[in-house]
Amino acid sequence: xxxxxxxxxxxxxxxxxxxxxxxxxxxxxxxxxxxxxxxxxxxxxxxxxxxxxxxxxxxxxxxxxxxxxxxxxxxxxxxxxxxxxxxxxxxxxxxxxxxxxxxxxxxxxxxxxxxxxxxxxxxxxxxxxxxxxxxxxxxxxxxxxxxxxxxxxxxxxxxxxxxxxxxxxxxxxxxxxxxxxxxxxxxxxxxxxxxxxxxxxxxxxxxxxxxxxxxxxxxxxxxxxxxxxxxxxxxxxxxxxxxxxxxxxxxxxxxxxxxxxxxxxxxxxxxxxxxxxxxxxxxx
Amino acid sequence: xxxxxxxxxxxxxxxxxxxxxxxxxxxxxxxxxxxxxxxxxxxxxxxxxxxxxxxxxxxxxxxxxxxxxxxxxxxxxxxxxxxxxxxxxxxxxxxxxxxxxxxxxxxxxxxxxxxxxxxxxxxxxxxxxxxxxxxxxxxxxxxxxxxxxxxxxxxxxxxxxxxxxxxxxxxxxxxxxxxxxxxxxxxxxxxxxxxxxxxxxxxxxxxxxxxxxxxxxxxxxxxxxxxxxxxxxxxxxxxxxxxxxxxxxxxxxxxxxxxxxxxxxxxxxxxxxxxxxxxxxxxxxxxxxxxxxxxxxxxxxxxxxxxxxxxxxxxxxxxxxxxxxxxxxxxxxxxxxxxxxxxxxxxxxxxxxxxxxxxxxxxxxxxxxxxxxxxxxxxxxxxxxxxxxxxxxx
Lengths: 284, 394
Hints:
The complex is a heterodimer. Chain A contains twelve helices and nine strands. By secondary structure, chain A is α/β, with parallel strands linked by helices.
C-alpha cells in the first residue's frame, strides 16, 4: 500500500492535510472534491497525482454547456442521418455512431487512471446529480446498444470547483473534500524553491515580502495568488532585477517592478498607487 | 466513542450523514491514517466536512470533543471581539523575564481569573500585564508570552508552543454567518436566476430537429429555439442616509454585485421607509424624484422586490401621515408599504442590523410584521434564506 501513497512531487508541494485527503480518496476509490482560491493549484493537483503514482491522466474540462451524458457517450444522430441519406452501409449498426466520452475512456484503461473533472461548478445545476450513479458504482448503461459499461479499475477522480454554484448534498456525501488554503509564508517559500531552485536567497526573500505586502493591501478586488507570484518571479528573473530593487524601506520606491503580473485589475492598480502616494506624503 | 463525536458535529450544525460516518470508519479500518491525532483530524475533516464554511465549526467541535477545553471557553466568554486581539505589537522577552512569569497557579485558577477579568473588562487592551489583549504578559490573549497562557484569537504559533491545528481556527473567516463580501453576495443572488427561453430563435434544437426530420420522411428539417436567458426581474430599494450611513459600504457592495446578476434590475433609493416618491440618483434626490405609483404601474407583478434598510426609525414614520423626517407625507409609510406588497407579493426586506438586536427596536418589529416575517439579516446566511423565500411563490 505504501507505493500508493501520495506525498507531493518534485514540482508540487502538498501540505499534510492535502496528502491525507488524496490518500483517503485513492484508498477508498471515491472522488475527491477540491476547492480553493483561484491560482492555488487545484487543477494541477490531479496531474501531479497521476505523475506521482505513474498513472494515465484524463482531463474532462467542464463548460456551462457541458452535459453529464457527454462524459459517458454521445449518440451522433446527425452523422447517422447523413449516412442514411447517402446510403452508407455503416448506418445499419448503431454502435458506429456511439462516441465514447471521457469517463468511458477512463473505465477502459488496464491500469487505474486519474480523471480530472475540472470546474464542475461551471455546468448546469443538475450536472453533478446526473453523475451520482456513475461515480458511485463506476458503471453506466448505453441505451442505444443495450450494454452495461463497467470500469475495469475504479479511476481516481479529482473534481475541482470554484464555488460558483452550490453542489447538491447527495453528491457531496459521496466525495472526500479538501479546501486548499492560501499557503503561508513557509509553504510558499517551498513552492517557489521547487519551481526556481537556482533563485538567489535574498531575491526570494524580498519577492515574498513584497508579495505578501501587496496581498495585505485592504480592498483589493483580486488578491494575487500562487500562480501569479510564480509568473512574477519568472519575469523578475528574466529581467534580471536585483533584490535591492524590491526593498520597500524607501517609500518612494514602494511600487514593486513589473507589478502588472501581480495586479490584474486596473482598479487594484489605482488603489495601490493611491496608497503609495499617501505613504509618500506621510514620509515627508 | 466516535458516535458521540458524530452527534456532537450534528449538534453544532455540521451536516454530517451516516454515509460519511461509515466512510470514515472504512477509511480508519483501511489504515489511511496512522495513529496520530493530527492525521486523524485531517482524515475526519476530509470525510465529514464538505464545505469550507463549516471548517470552523468542525474545528471547534473537534477541539471540544478531544480536549474538552474550547467549549469551556465559549461557555465562559462567548465571542471575544477580534478587534481586542488584533496584533499591534509583538513582545520579545529575555529568558529571565520568561522565568519570572513562569507560573501563575494551576489551570483551574487561570480559568477562574479569566472569567473574572472578562466580567470586569470592557475595552480593547494591548500591552500591559493584566487585561486580555495582545502583546502583553497577561496569561490571557495572543501574541505575547506566558508559558501557561491561554491563547485567544492568535494566528499561527508564535512561540511554537502547543496549539493544535484545530485550535487555531484558521477557517473562521469562511463561516457563512460572519462574512459578507461582493463575491458571496453574488453567489447568494444566483439562486434567484431563472432561466427561460425568450427572444429570437437562434440555437439549433437537435432533439426537435431529429423528430421533425423523421416525420418528414428523412429529409432534413432544421428546428431552432431561442437561447436561454436569465429572466429574473428584480426591483431593488436601498435605504440611504441617517442611521444607514453605517451600513453604506455593505449596501454598495450589494448593489454592485447585483447589477451584473440580472437581466432586469431596477434600483431605487428611499429614506427610512418607502413613501409616495423614491429616487434613482442619490446626488439629485431632491430634484429628480419618481412617484412610487408610477413604479407600481410600470413594472409588472412578476418582479421580485428586495428592500435593504435597517428599519430603525421612529414608529411615527411608519404609522402616521406626516411622520416622515424629510418631508410632509400625506399618507403613512405603512400604507405605501402595503401598496407595494400588494402588487409585488414576492418581496423581502434585508436588514444590516444583526438579528439578535431586532427586538430592541420597535420599528424593526413593525416592519417585520408588515413584511409578514420576511425580514432577513444581511449576512450570507440571511441572504440565502431571503433568496429562498423569494423563490417560493405565494
